[in-house]
Amino acid sequence: MSMDAGDDMNFLLFREQEELLRARYSRNRDKRDLHEAVARTYARRIAMHRLPYRSRLDDGGCLFNPAPYGSAG
Fold first, then answer.
1. CB-CB contact of 60 with 54 (8 Å)
2. Alpha-carbon dihedral of residues 50, 9, 57, 67, nearest 10 degrees?
């Protein structure tokens, strides 16, 4: 079974974090919004991935939440 970059969890996590950092350090509001939107897209792909990296806990949280390290953090 071949795996492209879109199926690689490490790739998805890396790209999400990269976009969050770009959003955090962007001075232009439009670019910041764009990077945040791209990061949300990667977050959705991570959530839908066959490996349950961000499985929901009983309290509604997840094991790894990038929000503390994201553009709002």
1. no
2. -140
